[in-house]
Amino acid sequence: MLKKSLLTDRELSDGDNKGSAHVPKGSIAVYVGPELRRYVVPIRYLRMPEFRDLMDEAAKEYGFQNGGGLEIPCDEQYFEYVLIKCATQLNV
């Protein structure tokens, strides 16, 4: 139940692929997995070690000159695990 409420109410966006524009203030949109599913993540997660590891992987995979949205090279299930871990550590 915790997983569903955290992802549905907070981090998981409408599930659209690239193209959706609305991102609430204090959040960032990222695209995950081969289908580039869109997630909206609170900016405060960016300082979490688990999320920084994902950002390092994105930098290795795509470099810093990516012309589009922020893509995270991992599967959705692992990304959702990281989101839950970040939310738990920040007591969201």
Q: What's the gyration radius in Å?
A: 12 Å
Mean pLDDT: 80
Count every beta strand, where a strand is a DSSP E run of 2 or more residues: 3
Structural class: alpha+beta
Q: Point out poorly predicted stretches.
A: 1-11
> What is the helix/strand order?
HEEHEH
**General shape:** globular
Please count the helical segments: 3
Strand sequence of the main sheet, in spatial order? 2-1-3
Largest sheet: 3 strands, mixed
Strand content: 15-25%
What separation lies between the terminal Cα atoms? 15 Å
The percentage helix is: 40-55%
Q: How many domain regions? A: 1
Family: Belongs to the ARG7 family.
Organism: Hibiscus trionum
Keywords: Developmental protein, Growth regulation
Protein name: SMALL AUXIN UPREGULATED RNA 47
Descriptive keywords:
disordered N terminus; globular; 3-stranded mixed sheet; 92 residues
Description:
This protein has 92 residues and is an alpha+beta fold. It has one domain (2-89). The protein is built from 3 helices and 3 strands. The chain has helices spanning 2-11, 49-62, 76-89; strands at 27-32, 37-42, 70-72. The protein has a 3-stranded mixed β-sheet with strand order 2-1-3. Helix 1 (2-11) crosses helix 3 (76-89). The longest helix is centred in the middle third of the chain and has 14 residues, at 49-62. It starts with a helix and ends with a helix.
